[in-house]
Amino acid sequence: MELRHLVSFLALAEELHFGRAAGRLHLTQPSLSAQLQKLERSLGVQLVVRNSHEVRLTAAGREFEGQARAIVAQLDRAAAVTKLAAAGHSGSLSVGYNLPASKHVLPDVLAHLAREHPHITVSLWEKRTGPQLAALADGTLDLALVYGHPSTAAFRYRPLLRRIPLVAVVGRTHRWAGRTGVRFAELAEQRCVLFARDQCPAMYDSIFRAAADNRIGLDVAQTADDPGATAHMVSVRPFVGFASLPRARSMNMGAPDSGAVAVKLLDPVPTLDLFAVWRAEEHNPAVELFLDAITATRVDAAPSLQPRAHERVDDLALEHQIQQ
């Protein structure tokens, strides 16, 4: 059974006249008859009764007409969707993101895509940088919004947000809890809670780069890959953890009901940059549309993340802008 046999049968079912159906299909009547015979042989049933007075469908033919029409319509839809996807006007996109991206990139970009390309389906996946890049490499994600960018030629990237500050995270009874800021060198006297580097290489390296600038080592007492776990650990032990300022805010650190407090780090202030990263050999047109949406929603003066009244990092602001 071939698609052209179904198309020929449907034309005949509508016209109930071999001459008109053949003309509509730009076929000769013998060719149309031959196609009908091949279709009937493949099905093992008679679909059409023809005599000198009329052409009519058999009971099997009437039943098959509905099925054939559905098959052809589905194939037409599949072809149309495929063409739209190839042009970037339809299809699906899997995007990984972190907290700053969810606040300062995704809202406007997703709104733009929904307005300009409503047939594109976007799936979102919130993870730390390391898991995102692994998922990007194995094809689970089409695009990642992460801290830092890979140095391998397998990926391409563009900057989004700049200089997102890191803060120290301590418990309410820690001697730093009442301070507005601490010099990074003071970490030489503290025991730290840190995460595995593969969870977020850029953040890990920023912390250790600041330590190297101060010629100190960090005493890592415990590891915790989840920011929530870090907050719990420092709330009951005299340890120091680390978080980005947006993450500290999202967890309400310093609020009356929080067991953890965010404290500004100085000399230097460790910072992170946020990037969009995608595969260099990416062929999904929706990725380019997502990047276009970032450009279309760019603002020259993005609102700063001024700390709230209960936060100890009262003079830290996020210097950021969405880049071209």
From TrEMBL:
Key words, A-Z: Activator, DNA-binding, Transcription, Transcription regulation
InterPro entries in the cross-refs: LysR_HTH_N, LysR_subst-bd, WH-like_DNA-bd_sf, WH_DNA-bd_sf
UniProt xrefs under SUPFAM superfamilies: Periplasmic binding protein-like II, Winged helix' DNA-binding domain
MF-aspect GO terms: DNA binding; DNA-binding transcription factor activity
GO annotation, cellular component aspect: protein-DNA complex
UniProt entry tagged with the keyword Transcription: yes
Family, per entry: Belongs to the LysR transcriptional regulatory family.
Protein name: LysR family transcriptional regulator
Biological classification of the source: Bacteria, Bacillati, Actinomycetota, Actinomycetes, Mycobacteriales
